[in-house]
Design brief:
heterodimer; A: about 350 residues; mainly alpha; ABC transporter involved in vitamin B12 uptake, BtuC; about 70% helix; B: mainly alpha; two-stranded antiparallel sheet; 14 helices; globular
Chain lengths: ~350, ~350
């Protein structure tokens, strides 16, 4: 810890000895996608009212903020960092929009200001993590309190509800002829951007490299600090955008908007197969996980199960999914090596 | 551990001073806040209500922060404590209302044991599943809260359901010091002694400093991590009892969000989130500081809506300060080494 030794943990990307089809078909992401399809089919055939188009509309409206924020969160967690402040940023962006609209600013200006707040908030996180060199868990617990505190402080217990009708209507409007709300359009645009960024640019390769080994990534020329900084700013600005949507959807800007959203986002990201140690994860797994939780929730709500049971299911799914992966890895290592060898020797050998 | 190969005297004294300075600094901050509040409104400290609240308010968070500090020192984190408080507080209330005449010590024991079991579940999943504590306890945060909500539904336990002798614990004082505060401080003292003076306590620090080294050295890492989580759960269970006694009404949402307050208190108190550093005293003082500021803000004419923002600034300030001190200390150590 104190001496510059070479004890950086070496983690080996497993499973590349298997054929491509096995890697794809037996992956964590595939399991989540299959589970999502299964849940959707079972719900559609057994739950009354699930087949109505309105179900899909509300499902997408409900999960939209989580879907949006899960994109940058996936990248942040692949680098091995975390951002707990996103829920508070949603609240702060919501309040910023509300306060400015209340003060008479046009909605567009207020929304731009909220996005700017998102950039600044993300930059604060990024600065503290990359320049000052603090652990992101501690930093973002601090900014979680700070952003939420600013939001609550600015509005107190009051709420701003005087938003232009054309905007609030747009947030809930469906694309003509379908049951899909318009918010999916910006989501898809962001999804394409993030997917291209992650899978087709040196920046994206750097994201994975940092998560696998920060030191190795630095020695290979990855701009570790710059990459992380950019990711935190992206998380801030996307959260701010989600905050504007959240405000419009419920037609109300309140200091406590989206409290606890960060945990839902992180739960979905981890469920979707992103390793909390970093270095591993796919966007499609995360999106499937968000939709899985959303589908389960809306199906259960239709059979009059309260939202709290959904929380149990989210929590249990999360625990089971990580434990399941561990158990599986344990069993595989047992099967391959009857005589257990020390992990250090094993990773050095491969 | 780096002090072995350098002249000990000056350096170890510096480290000792830094360690002491942290708790001292927070104490100073608490005194300043209390002084400011008292100057503005003398009844902040000098009325019987003010004095009591000053001591009583932090005592519940103090317990949780102590448990959290122990877990964080082992390089883990327990995000489920808020939900454990909710479950055990409701359990306390239900025991009183369902079994009339149940002795109070038995209820306390059951609630603490229930908390310990919930902590054991966390610990077992973390230690045997080899999964990061953050993920596990994030999952159990939802799961435990959900169990509480399913169990309680929209019911709540009211003060009338609980015996007055139990509620008396929440308001009772001995020599003007609230009973709950005395219990919390005794627990704090035991925890501090355990962490400082026993083999088990020191092993927590060893594991947090370097889990791999601790394992190679032959420490029973799994067992210690289990112990840390059980302690955190049990202390959250005790905090749940306190909660019921102090507030008199418990619904399914009791303790929501306390996990971040507890982590915040520990971090402000100088417990490093990366493990191996910090004391339960620091965490306890951190808890007192956070809640005292909370009470002082309205007195100072700042709407208490801003309290969370102040807490955020404090947490960030505390970790930045730690970082600056660590960097300076490292530089000094290197200088000392180069001179030698």
């Amino acid at each position: 810890m104190t001496a510059p030794t070479t004890t950086a943990t070496v983690r080996v990307v497993k499973n590349y000895d298997k054929p491509f089809w096995r890697r794809v078909l037996l992956s964590r992401e595939t399991a989540i996608v299959v589970l999502l399809i299964a849940v959707a089919i079972v719900s559609a055939s057994t739950v009354r009212g699930f087949n109505q188009p309105l179900t899909l509309t509300f499902l997408l409206l409900d999960v939209a903020p989580i879907l949006l924020i899960a994109l940058p969160m996936t990248l942040i967690m692949i680098t091995g960092e975390i951002d707990l402040s996103v829920g508070s940023m949603v609240g702060l962006s919501s309040v910023t929009t509300g306060v400015l609209v209340q003060a008479g600013a046009p909605f567009g200006v207020a929304a731009l200001a909220a996005l700017l707040v998102g950039v600044i908030g993300g930059a604060i996180n990024g600065f503290l993590v990359t320049v000052v060199g603090l652990p992101s868990l501690a930093v973002t617990i601090g900014t979680l309190a700070l952003f939420r505190g600013l939001a609550v402080g600015l509005l107190g217990t009051t709420a701003v509800t005087s938003f232009p009708v054309e905007w609030t209507a747009l947030a809930k409007a469906k694309i003509a002829g379908t049951a899909i709300p318009y918010i999916i359009v910006p989501f898809l645009v962001l999804l394409v951007i993030f997917a291209l960024l992650l899978h087709f640019t040196p920046f994206g390769r750097g994201v994975y490299a940092i998560g696998l080994s920060k030191d190795a990534a630095r020695f290979s020329g990855v701009h570790v600090e710059r990459t992380k900084f950019v990711l935190f700013v992206l998380a801030g600005v996307v959260s701010a955008f989600a905050g504007i949507f959240y405000t419009l959807r419920f037609g109300s800007a309140r200091g406590d908007n989206a409290t606890g959203l960060e945990l839902q986002v992180i739960a979905a990201v981890v469920l979707g197969g992103v390793s909390v140690f970093g270095g591993r994860g796919q966007l499609y797994g995360v999106i499937a996980a968000v939709l899985l939780i959303g589908t389960l929730s809306s199906a259960l709500r239709l059979v009059n199960v309260t939202s709290d049971v959904i929380n149990i299911i989210t929590g249990t799914l999360l625990v089971l999914s990580v434990i399941g992966a561990s158990v599986l890895a344990f069993l595989q290592s047992r099967r391959r090596r009857p005589a257990p060898t020390p992990t250090v020797a094993a990773s050095a050998a491969s | 551990m780096t002090t072995t190969n350098i002249p000990v005297s000056a350096v170890s004294r510096t480290i000792g001073r830094l360690g002491r300075a942290r708790e001292f600094g927070i104490l100073l901050a608490i005194v300043l806040v209390v002084a400011a509040g008292t100057v503005k409104n003398p009844s902040f400290l000098f009325s019987s209500d003010g004095w009591r609240d000053l001591l009583l308010t932090p005592s519940i968070l103090l317990l949780v922060a102590v448990g959290q500090a122990i877990v964080i020192i082992t390089r883990n984190v327990d995000l489920s404590v808020g939900s454990v408080i909710g479950l055990t507080a409701y359990l306390t209330g239900r025991l009183f209302s369902d079994i009339p005449g149940i002795p109070i010590p038995l209820v306390v024991l059951i609630a603490v044991a229930a908390g310990a079991v919930l902590g054991l579940v966390n610990g077992a999943l973390v230690a045997f599943g080899k999964v990061p504590a953050m993920v596990i306890t994030l999952g159990t945060l939802y799961a435990y809260r959900g169990i509480g909500v399913v169990w309680a539904g929209s019911n709540r336990v009211n003060a009338s359901d609980m015996p007055s002798s139990f509620l008396g614990l929440g308001t009772g004082q001995i020599l003007t010091i609230p009973i709950l505060t005395i219990v919390a401080v005794v627990v704090l003292g035991i925890a501090a002694w355990y962490l400082r003076n026993t083999r088990g306590g020191r092993e927590f620090y060893a594991i947090g400093s370097d889990p791999a080294a601790a394992h190679l050295y032959g420490l029973r890492v799994t067992r210690r991590i289990l112990t840390a989580f059980i302690l955190s759960g049990a202390l959250a269970g005790l905090a749940g009892v306190f909660y019921a006694a102090r507030y008199g009404t418990v619904d399914s949402q009791a303790g929501t969000g306390w996990e971040l307050q507890a982590v915040g208190a520990a971090v402000v108190g100088g417990v490093a989130i990366v493990g191996g550093v910090g004391t339960v005293w620091g965490a306890a003082l951190g808890a007192v500081l956070l809640l005292t500021i909370n009470r002082a803000l309205p007195v100072l004419g700042i709407p208490d809506f801003w309290q969370q923002a102040v807490v955020g600034v404090l947490i960030i300030g505390a970790i930045v300060l730690d970082r600056v001190l660590a960097v300076r200390q490292k530089r000094r150590l290197i200088e000392t080494r180069d001179q030698a």
